[in-house]
Specification:
Elements lengths: L1 H13 L10 H10 L4 H7 L4 H9 L8 H16 L6 H8 L46 E2 L24 E6 L6 E6 L2 E2 L20 E2 L44 H14 L2 H11 L5 E6 L6 E5 L14 H11 L15 E5 L1 H6 L5 E2 L6 E2 L10 H8 L3 E2 L7 E9 L2 E8 L19 H14 L7 H12 L3 E6 L2 E6 L38 E3 L4 H5 L2 E7 L2 H6 L4 E2 L4 E4 L9 E6 L23 E5 H9 L8 E4 L3 E2 L3 H17 L6 H4 L1 H9 L6 H20 L25 H26 L5 E3 L2 E6 L5 H4 L19 E8 H9 L19
Parallel strand pairs: 6-8, 8-13, 9-10
Antiparallel strand pairs: 1-5, 2-3, 3-4, 6-7, 11-12, 12-13, 14-15, 16-24, 17-25, 17-26, 18-23, 19-22, 20-21, 20-22, 24-25
């Protein structure tokens, strides 16, 4: 037995391995840009997608034959024309293989006295893809006689392929171009790839029949094997019968370095998100999700898509395994949001009727016959779970519950996974989802589909979906090729995959690092909950009006510098506002307006001594004129705008949803009264869009909360680690920086408001501020004496601007304050119960 194993290993080690005939990824991109080709140009020439070129240049994948040889020829030719900045072994191998024979006259190999002799060009070189098209339009039925042997610069033709994309191979027969045997065919005729044929006349008896040349766009200039791929350029089309030859590097005029960078910048801008969206349409033609219901006849299923329409087919079987197979066949899913990220899995939502049709139990308390929400999943002995396993599918550790994932072990790098959402088991009853009770299956598909398109395919609660959005936009790792193979590398601007422990002052009291913490040694960061006694002038006002900041936490996260590495402890550090961290400093001497809450404490009171503060608050203290000298600090010396992509996507989702509900972005600027009326009527709009709006708000809020998620479940003992600590997004300092930045932003606006209008807020709850007002409208406090609107608190839709929250008679407000209740909590509904309760 062991002899057989050793023999197998010996055979494996002796198996010839492909030579490293490609330059390093960075050199691939540099050569393409040096010749001013875009990734889209090259993708069109190689009959592939731009995303494939992106992966080749990033080193996450390498081209495989037959496109590999053509790609090497392209790069090698450019290296001879534009030089290479790395060792040239790959270039020598490409030349020895005959891949750059036609271009060797362009320049000698660098650092080489004598180039290796080219290999025998009579050998067969598989290369089935045409890398260029004719200069002039060619009909699909037109023929190109080849009675004379083609020159080395003959244009390429497409070799015949099988339906799966592999080359069609047959018995060896004389090539119609060079007469040498070839197992490949082009339009049924024996042929090599044009430029690799020996340029010798074929025997008279073997003169070829006309070979049909595939049609190609008229604007594509001709190219030859071993010459630069002159794919369609993003320039004006040629006006003559054939495009003018492209200028070489030596013929270009000398320009400044700034001018030379401009084309690359333009190309990079063109290769933006729109290209990812175009690629997604091909990968996931069915969209991100489907809501599965029972057809009216009661005999079959019907599936509703993200646009509310019906899918052309539905699962034929009556098992979950059949549903999963169907979802994969239909190619449900969503595109990755980052080049190094992962595509989103398909989501199938089961209506109550579909749940019963599939033999799954309803919600209840009997563990044997019903789904018990307290347990969170069906027992492993349930017949539905056994059916899934019998069909070769697996469940994650969460099991078969409201949000279940069913998958198979990936084969050949292909992910096979489908997520289920079961509303009957409470999947959409909480967690930030507010689904109308009477919503039909088609409207539910449209609601969840809208959220999926604007934000992300739902993965659970809105908070969970928000965290998934963060990592989808900032994946922690990417594949990196090294001399010894592939390894995992960190993505620039992202946090490590396994995260890192925060500093002792930042963690909650149950964290292992907090067990030995001294009393008062915690970084306390919470949103404001503050109110004060009204002045006599404020008591005389007839009304109190509340203004709410739109998506305050989301607005604070934009371009905010956040930690990308673990904390470093330093004593008496010099404060740097660009270094995120926790600082032990005394801010009790910072003077602030007594009619406004202190920005340094959650209850708005003035600090009484040294305490831990985040960078955001210490920087604001300096802005107010304080001289600060921290005595201790836990600092992060690697940082960046980690949440900025998350901020941009959610902001656009919010703005788009508001526009769909009749409140466009510029309405407040053009007609403030119309804006207030539109906002007042927003809940009477499309119920699905209203639910999407609520979900987007909860996504932003829940994401920030999840960054300091505490342990859940029974039996937890303080000091033990819990699962959330291993996420790259679990970091209490990130949460503190976002909340503190939102607090500082609002305090800055309240100061400006007091200076601009003379009004001081008398109560604040998180992002809602209450003012005494002469009338019940927001315009009664936002209008200056000169009848213009103040910009200190700007009315509008955009995150960071304000909207009308509510108004109450001042007499009611004074009663709330007398009862030690925060009027900002009750400004919308009045009474002693807030709108959130």
């Amino acid at each position: 037995m062991s002899d057989d194993l050793f023999a197998a290993i010996d055979a494996l080690l002796e198996r010839p391995r492909p030579a490293d005939d490609l330059p390093v990824p960075a050199e691939r991109e540099r050569l393409r840009k040096a010749a001013e080709y875009t990734q889209e140009d090259l993708a069109k020439a190689l009959k592939t997608r731009r995303e494939t070129i992106v992966r080749w240049e990033a080193g996450t994948t390498d081209p495989r034959p037959p496109k590999r040889e053509v790609y090497i020829a392209f790069l090698a030719t450019l290296a001879l024309q534009h030089g290479t900045v790395e060792p040239t072994e790959w270039l020598h191998r490409a030349q020895a293989a005959g891949l750059v024979r036609a271009a060797r006259k362009a320049a000698p190999l660098p650092d080489t006295a004598e180039a290796p002799a080219p290999a025998d060009t009579t050998r067969e070189t598989p290369a089935p893809v045409a890398v260029a098209a004719p200069a002039a339009p060619v009909s699909k039925t037109a023929t190109a006689p080849v009675s004379e042997p083609p020159a080395p610069t003959a244009q390429l033709v497409m070799l015949d392929q099988n339906p799966d994309g592999s080359l069609l191979m047959a018995a060896p027969a004389p090539c119609v171009q060079c007469g040498q045997p070839s197992v490949y065919r082009a339009q049924g005729h024996p042929m090599h790839l044009g430029g690799f044929c020996r340029p010798a006349a074929a025997p008279a008896a073997m003169q070829p029949a006309p070979v049909a040349v595939p049609a190609a766009p008229a604007a594509a200039p001709a190219a030859a094997v071993g010459a630069p791929v002159a794919a369609p350029r993003r320039t004006a089309p040629a006006t003559g019968p054939a495009a003018a030859p492209r200028r070489t590097a030596s013929s270009r005029p000398v320009v400044s370095s700034r001018a030379r960078k401009a084309p690359a910048k333009t190309a990079a801008a063109a290769e933006g998100p729109s290209d990812w969206e175009a690629a997604a349409a091909a990968r996931f033609p069915a969209g991100p999700l489907a809501v599965l219901d029972v057809a009216p006849d009661g005999k079959s299923f019907v599936a509703y898509l993200a646009d509310g329409t019906q899918a052309p087919t539905a699962p034929a079987g009556r098992t979950l395994a059949a549903v999963v197979e169907w979802a994969l066949e239909q190619r449900f899913g969503s595109p990755r949001l980052h080049r190094h990220g992962k595509d989103g899995d398909a989501l199938v939502v089961l209506t109550d009727a579909a749940l019963a049709e599939l033999g799954l139990p309803p919600l209840g308390r009997d563990e044997k016959t019903e789904f018990v929400q307290r347990l969170g999943r069906l027992p492993k002995t349930h017949k539905a779970v056994k059916q899934i396993e019998k069909a070769g599918w697996l469940l994650t550790q969460r099991g078969l519950g409201p949000w279940a994932r069913i998958y198979r072990t990936p084969e050949d790098g292909r992910r096979q996974c489908v997520q289920l959402s079961i509303p009957a088991w409470g999947a959409l009853a909480s967690g930030g989802w507010t689904i109308p009770d009477d919503l039909g299956a088609a409207d539910l598909a449209r609601l969840l589909g809208t959220y999926a398109i604007r934000v992300l395919t739902p993965r659970g609660s809105t908070a969970v979906s928000g965290l998934e959005l963060v990592t989808a936009l900032r994946p922690p790792t990417r594949a990196v090729r090294t001399d010894t193979g592939w390894t995992s590398g960190r993505v620039e601007g992202s946090r490590p995959k396994d995260g890192f422990d925060p500093a002792p002052p930042e963690v909650p009291d149950v964290h292992p690092l907090a067990q030995d913490r001294e009393e008062g040694g915690e970084l306390v960061t919470e949103a404001w909950d503050w109110h004060r006694e009204p002045t006599d002038a404020e008591k005389a006002a007839p009304f109190a009006v509340g203004l709410d900041v739109n998506m305050a936490f989301l607005a604070a996260a934009g371009r905010l510098v956040l930690p990308l590495s673990g904390p470093v402890h330093e004593l008496n550090p010099a404060f740097d506002p660009k270094t995120p961290g926790s600082w032990l400093v005394d801010l009790s001497g910072v003077e602030t307006n007594p009619l406004l809450p202190s920005p340094f404490t959650a209850d708005g009171s003035r600090p009484t001594g040294p305490a831990w503060y985040s960078t955001a608050k210490v920087a604001y203290a300096m802005e107010l004129g304080a001289k600060v000298q921290p005595t201790e600090g836990w600092l992060r010396h690697e940082s960046g705008p980690y949440l900025d992509p998350w901020h941009k996507r959610l902001r656009q989702a919010y703005v788009d949803t508001m526009a769909a509900l009749g409140v466009p972005l510029t309405l407040a600027d053009t007609d403030p009264l119309a804006f207030l009326d539109a906002m007042a009527a927003i809940k009477q709009g499309d119920p699905a869009e209203v639910a999407v709006l609520t979900a987007i708000k909860q996504t932003a809020k829940g994401t920030i909360g999840k960054m300091r998620e505490r342990p859940r479940g029974h039996g937890y003992k303080p000091g033990e680690r819990w699962a959330a600590l291993d996420r790259p997004t679990w970091d209490p300092l990130m949460r503190a920086l976002v909340i503190d930045t939102a607090t500082v932003n609002l305090h800055r606006k309240l100061r400006k408001m007091a200076a601009d209008t003379g009004l001081h807020t008398l109560a604040v709850l998180s992002d809602c501020a209450v003012f005494a007002a002469p009338g019940p409208s927001a315009l009664d406090i936002l209008t200056r004496p000169d009848h213009t609107l103040t910009t200190s608190l700007r009315l509008g839709v955009s995150p960071g601007m304000v909207k009308f929250e509510g108004s109450r008679p001042m007499s009611e407000i004074t009663e709330l304050i007398a009862d030690q209740a925060n009027p900002a909590r009750h400004i919308k509904t009045g009474g002693i119960v807030s709108a959130d309760e």
